Amino acid sequence: MIKIRLSICIATYNRANFISITLNSIIKQLTPEVEIIIVDGNSTDNTMEVVKSIQNKCSQIQYFKLKEKGGFGVDYNKAVEYASGDMCWLFCDDDLIKQNSISKILSIIKPEVSLIILNSEIKNLDLSFTKEERKMLIYDDIIFDESELNMLFECIIPYISYIGGVIIKRNLWLEREKEKYFESDFIHVGVIFQKLVPNKTIVIADPLIEIRSDNALWTSRSFEIWMIKWPNLLSSFESVTTNFKKELLSKYNSLKLLKEIMIFRRDGFYNIHKYNQWYKNSNSFTFLFKTLLLIISIIPPILFYLIILIVVNFKKLITLIKK
Asked: Domain of 198?
């Protein structure tokens, strides 16, 4: 019996319009050492029919439909539990893998490698053009050892919110604490940085993934995710002591926070309900600061568009005058 070296783990929910393209991009490159694990969080569209039709042509696909939606963290954790490979690639249900990606990954998988981080290319929604050739602006592979967690954090944390670029040793995933990160929307980040990553981590410079941008299911929750969950997650990593972590968190406790919240208000993702939920009873801010947050929550979003428009044009006018 052939040993599975790589399990491509996909958690999906109501992605019937995309998952067939994703799977077909993978199937073209499959070898006997690779399996595909799909955990469906009880989709209400025809995701099951789409996957089953492809599964009938590819015996290396295993499909598990849950009785109820577990959520992002729970479903990816189940996918890893169902997997049998030495390494698990936590892949997204609407992205594509680039040509020869699997063969390159298999050449990198070795007993001393615990984690592989992949670079990616950013496409538009229908994949018709490239928005960014490289998500990570690196051009040579980087290898980190166990003692270099801070350096690893600085290298990948600006990009690691995307789960599809993570390949992790299955045993490492299973032995780490996961339940506390189920509701974080970034379970993979919690698993990686909760303590030192043993042995070697390899960051691959060549983009091996095509990301379908502007297709996130959590857009309506973006304020909660980026302004509450993300900083809380970063704060929880006691093993990470780099000043870069402090710089990332500083904007959530300073005037930079006002700018971020104004943008969310402009886009309709911050309102009085969010203020009451996250800031009204907080002890982290002064009364004056909370008053500003309250005012922002009730100002009509159109005013923020006008303010930004005035500021931008004012800067352009000043520039022209100086010339």
From this structure: 6-212
Identify the residue whose tokens are 């955990």. Answer: 39
Number of domains in the chain: 2
Residue 32 is inside which H or E element, if any? none
pLDDT tens by residue, 6-61: 999 999 999 999 999 999 999 999 999 999 999 999 999 999 999 999 999 999 99
- Determine the Cα–Cα distance for residues 87 and 116; give it in Å rounded to an integer: 9
Instruction: Let me know whether 202 and 285 are in one domain.
Output: no
CATH code of the domain in which 25 resides: 3.90.550.10
Same domain for 154 and 266, yes or no, is no
Q: Taking the CB of residue 291, how many other CB atoms lie within 10 A of it?
A: 11
Give the domain-ending residue among 179, 212, 245. Answer: 212
Helices (H), the chain: 19-27, 47-55, 72-82, 101-108, 149-156, 170-175, 187-193, 222-223, 230-235, 243-250, 255-266, 272-278, 287-298, 301-322
Q: Compute CA distances 314 → 36, 65, 162, 263, 319, whole Å.
A: 54, 55, 36, 19, 9
Q: What is the pLDDT of residues 159-191, one digit of tens each?
A: 999 999 999 999 999 999 999 999 999 999 999
Tokens coding 180 = 């506390």
Same domain, 163 and 72: yes
Stated pTM of the model: 0.90
Q: Is residue 220 part of a domain?
A: no
Residues 196 and 235 grouped into a single domain: no
Distance CA 246, CA 131 (A): 30
For 195-214, the pLDDT digits (tens) are 999 999 999 999 999 999 88
Q: Are residues 257 and 190 in the same domain?
A: no
Write down how long the chain is.
Answer: 323
